[in-house]
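Sequence only, no structure available. Ideas?
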Amino acid sequence: MKKSNGQEHLKGSRLHPISLIFFIFKTIKDLLYPLLVFVISTIVRKEINMLWVGGGTLLFLVLLAFISYFTWYRFVYTIEQGSLHVEQGIFVRKKTWISKDRVQAVNTSAGIIHRMLGLVKLSVETAGGKKPEAVLNAITAQESERIRAALLLHKEANNQVDQTRHSSVADEQVVQAASFEEGKAAEGNANSVLVLSTKSDEPQESRVLSIKDLLLFSATSGRVGIIIALFGAAYSQLDDVLDRMFNFRDIISSWLNSHTLNIGIISLLFVAGLLIAWIVAIIFTSLKEYGFTLRQIDDKLIITRGLLEKKQITVPIQSIQAIHLTQNILRRPLGLFSVHVVATGYDEKNGASALMFPLIRSAELPHFLQRFVPLYQVPERWERLEQRALSSFITIPLLLTIAIIIPAIIWIPGSYGWLAVFLPLFVGLSAWLNYKHTAWSLMNSQLSIQYGGFTKHQALIHRKRIQWNRMSQTPFQLRKNLTTISVALASGRSNATFNVRHMPEQAGYELKGWLANSNRQGKLP
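Reply:
I predicted one. Tokens follow.
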């Protein structure tokens, strides 16, 4: 991938004219906060010059339309020799060349406007990129498939050649060791492999998230805290404005003066606020994950989801580095897991893994993995930590939280500072859960690592996918003959690292030796 600001003109295709609306929305989104401040400050100001307001609004709209039109007009792209060339910019021309060898993912999404017009938004990601290198925000579905085929077809062809070579070598060995009739059978098997490797748009495996499971996933997502934090952030930014417009503080004060607060009313208000945040979290999560569908087509996993904005990502199975299972405190009693995939070029925002399927029951999990990613299996047994490791999990976190209590009581106004006395209980429980959950398992060529506090994680890692491993000891671990093993995998934006903390030193050396054998093994099939 190369970028240039040169003067060479690149002729090519333009986006659909509806892109003008998307450019306008993007500009407004980028300027949303200053615009909000300007509008609200103008409204609450006692003296408003309508001429200035009208003239400023008109000038802003004209400039916005001008910039959006020329942004669309000056945005062109073309496909040449399997590479995507994009040229954009009104005054400063930026040219981007994305070679097909660097392309990691070509994903599509479609909002409501896109679907009304039969359009999609296409994003092209490269290996190691922190964001899409090219975004075509409004093209036809046929055009997106043409671009996808031009950028990814060579990889699929290479994969087919590798598979054919493996099959040919295996069949040749069978012919040399068997009789003439068995050789004929092996030749027939080779032909069958070649026929089966022909690409097809029909999914070999598929699974759709039902409405019942969607609601169950949304209700147990644990995103209530995020919604409460958003409400708090919004209130902190708008409390002065609300007070000026509606005398918000006076309304609250008069209500508090007219009602005698007791533990019952406070509890009722707390539960009501929590219930509202929970309902909002369910709505947002359901809209995001609606229609979640996982399909396997040839050597790719295709994930589709979303109601208001329908997104589709394609994950080549060969790019999968590990399977990451999560089980939060709400889903654990129900035996429910979320399945994530750690793959090169794919992640969720700033995380190391992307959602593969939202909700799977523990009894269905082995069969689910066998259908879609047969290289990975759920361990039958785990190796647990010894009792002497418990203090290593608890001691330092408890000391740090105890050191916070006294300053919190002194500096936090009112009696709210005394709430800090509950902090060691919360931290101690989290540390104890970390100790109970930490485990590891070796099974054939798979390393499985379990960890986590209130949310339990399980990482299923094939030995050949490990980029590096490290064994470390702190002075405290050295006294107790404990150690920590860390393994790193390639993922979307950085290495995904998994640790087995405070394991017995002897077990650490055994695991280190098992990992060292990976250098003597062949490539993955």
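The radius of gyration is 29 Å.
Hope that gets you unstuck.
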